[in-house]
UniProtKB/TrEMBL annotation:
Gene3D superfamilies: 3.30.70.20
Keyword Iron-sulfur part of the UniProt annotation: yes
Keywords of the record: 4Fe-4S, Iron, Iron-sulfur, Metal-binding
Domain of life: Archaea
Name this protein carries in UniProt: Putative methanogenesis marker 16 metalloprotein
GO molecular function: 4 iron, 4 sulfur cluster binding; metal ion binding; oxidoreductase activity
Cross-referenced InterPro entries: 4Fe4S_Fe-S-bd, 4Fe4S_Fe_S_CS, Fe-S_Ferredoxin, HcyBio, Methan_mark_16
Spans through the membrane: none
Provenance organism: Methanolobus profundi
Pfam families attached to this UniProt entry: HcyBio
Length: 427
C-alpha cells in the first residue's frame, strides 16, 4: 500500500509509527519474516566512511578593524585555506574555504579531516595570516569563536562504493589503503556500509531529494542536490550542516599511503512510502553488489557482494595487550590510520574513541594482540575463482549502525522531523 511523508508524519506525531533501523529490517528478513508496507513506516540508514568531497566554509574575526586590509594567505594548524571569496576589506574578519583533502604544510599525516574534528572537539587552532601588505601574524581560534562554520559535501554517501585489489606486480600508494597496497592481488580493501547505506535503501531517490533533512556528522543538515560524478545508476549526494552541532566521534582524519583523508558520516531516515522502497530496504548484504576494482588501473575487474565484508565478520577488533611479543617494529602502532594505538605509562592502549574499526591492526600483528575476522573477497575473473583476504575497511560499519540507532531514537522522541523534499534529484 502506498503512503506519503505527511501521513507518516501524522503517525509519528501520534506515536503510532513504526521506526526501524535498516539493520533491524535485515535481521527480520534473515529470519524469513514476511514484511509489508503496513509493518514499517520509517527506516533509518547511516554510513561513516572516507569522504574526500568535503569542504568547510569558516568565517571569524582575527584582528580589530583596519588592522590589515586583506588576507592573502592563511594556514589553520598548517592546513592551507582558500581566502575569500568575500575580501572583508579592513574588517579584520577572515572568510575561508578549507578543502577536506588539504594536507598540513609541516606535518605529513595531518589533514583537514583532523582539523575539522579538532575544531568540533573545541580545541585551539593556530591561525597564521599573511596580508597583501606582506604583514604576518598568528592567533588562536576555537569553533566557539566562529560565528559561521559549516561543512559542505560535494560528493558524499555514494549508494555504495567498491572493493580494491592491486593486480600489478608493484606496491601502490593510494588513498584506498593505510599502507602501501601489496601487489599480485594478495589483499583487498573496501568501502561501503552495504545494507544500511542511505541511498541503497531508496535507490530511485523517491524520498531523498533537494531539501531532505539528514544528519551529517551528527548535526542536522540538508541535502542540497546531487554530488559530483553522481548518476542515476551510481548516485551520491551534496549537502550541508553546521559544524557547531557536530559530534567529533563521527568525523576525523584518516591516514592513507597517499596522505590524510577526511571522514564523514551521514544518517538519513527513509519513509517507506512505496513497495519499491520496501523492496530496497529488504535487500541484505548478500543481495548488494560490491564492485571489485584494480587499484593500479582503476578499472572494474569483477564483482562480489557486501556479504563478503559484513556477514559473519567482526565489527571491531579484540584487544589482548598481554599477548604482545615485543616485535622490533610495531606495525599496528606505525600504520594505524587513526593513531589510535599508543603507549601510555608503558602500557599499550587501543583508544576506542579514535579507532575507526578498519581492522588493519589485526592483519599485521604477529602476536594476536589485535584480533578480528575481516572476511575474504570472493569473485571470479577469467574463469578463475579468487578468495582475497580483506585487510582494511574504509567504512566504519560499527559506528554507522550506532548512528542509525541514534537517528531512530531521535525520530521516536520527536527530536528529528521528517520532511518532504523540495525537488527530486532524478525526476
Ligand atoms: S605487532 Fe603486535 S605483537 Fe608486535 S609489538 Fe606490536 S602489538 Fe606487540
Ligand atoms: S581497527 Fe586497529 S588499525 Fe584500525 S583504526 Fe582501530 S586501532 Fe587503528
Amino acid at each position: 500500500m502506498e503512503s506519503s511523508v505527511s501521513k507518516i508524519r501524522e503517525k509519528l506525531d501520534k506515536k503510532e509509527a513504526v521506526v526501524m533501523t535498516a539493520q533491524e529490517v535485515s535481521e527480520l528478513v534473515a529470519k524469513g519474516e514476511d514484511i509489508s508496507t503496513m509493518d514499517v513506516d520509517v527506516v533509518t540508514t547511516a554510513t561513516r566512511a572516507i569522504m574526500s568531497g568535503t569542504y568547510a566554509i569558516l568565517s571569524f574575526p582575527v584582528n580589530s578593524p583596519a588592522h590589515f586590509k586583506r588576507a592573502s594567505k592563511v594556514l589553520l594548524n598548517g592546513i592551507p585555506a582558500h581566502v575569500g571569496p568575500c575580501p572583508n576589506e579592513r574588517l579584520g574578519i577572515l572568510d575561508l574555504i578549507v578543502f577536506g583533502t588539504a594536507h598540513s604544510t609541516y606535518e605529513h599525516n595531518y589533514g583537514a579531516g583532523h582539523l575539522f574534528r579538532e575544531l568540533v572537539e573545541g580545541k585551539n587552532i593556530e591561525v597564521a595570516v599573511e596580508t597583501d601588505e606582506n604583514v604576518s601574524f598568528k592567533c588562536d581560534v576555537r569553533l566557539e569563536d566562529m560565528p559561521y562554520a559549516k561543512l559542505y559535501a560535494t560528493r558524499h554517501t555514494f549508494k555504495n562504493y567498491a572493493a580494491f585489489v592491486n593486480c600489478s606486480s608493484e606496491p601502490v600508494d593510494t588513498i584506498f589503503h593505510a599502507a602501501s597496497f601489496d601487489p599480485d592481488m594478495k589483499e583487498a580493501t573496501l568501502s561501503g556500509s552495504g545494507e544500511i547505506n542511505p541511498i541503497q535503501n531508496d535507490p530511485n531517490m523517491e524520498t531523498i531529494g533537494v531539501g531532505t533533512r539528514m544528519l551529517m556528522n551528527g548535526a542536522e543538515g540538508f541535502v542540497i542536490g546531487d554530488g559530483t560524478r553522481s548518476s542515476p545508476g551510481k548516485p551520491n549526494l551534496a549537502g550541508v550542516a553546521d559544524m557547531h552541532d557536530m559530534d567529533p566521534a563521527l568525523m576525523g582524519g584518516f591516514k592513507t599511503s597517499a596522505g590524510p583523508e577526511c571522514i564523514a558520516s551521514w544518517a538519513i531516515a527513509i519513509p517507506v512510502t512505496s513497495q519499491s522502497i520496501l523492496d530496497a530496504v529488504m535487500e541484505t548484504d548478500k543481495d548488494i553488489p560490491m564492485v571489485v576494482n584494480d587499484i593500479d588501473k582503476r578499472t572494474m575487474i569483477s564483482s562480489s557482494t557486501y556479504a563478503d565484508a559484513w556477514k559473519g565478520t567482526d565489527r571491531s577488533v579484540g584487544f589482548h595487550p598481554n599477548s604482545c611479543i615485543n616485535c622490533d617494529t610495531c606495525e599496528p602502532t606505525r600504520d594505524c590510520p587513526m593513531n589510535a594505538i599508543y603507549y601510555k605509562n608503558d602500557k599499550m592502549v587501543l583508544d576506542r574513541y579514535l579507532c575507526f574499526n578498519c581492522g588493519l591492526c589485526s592483519t599485521i600483528c604477529p602476536g594476536n594482540v589485535f584480533t578480528a575476522e575481516l572476511g575474504k573477497l570472493h569473485f571470479e575473473m577469467d574463469d578463475k575463482k579468487y578468495d582475497i583476504p580483506i585487510v582494511l575497511r574504509q567504512t566504519d560499519r560499527k559506528r554507522s549502525e550506532e548512528l542509525a540507532v541514534k537517528l531512530k531514537k531521535k525520530i521516536e522522541d520527536g527530536e528529528f522531523k521528517l520532511n518532504e523534499m523540495v525537488e527530486r534529484i532524478y525526476p
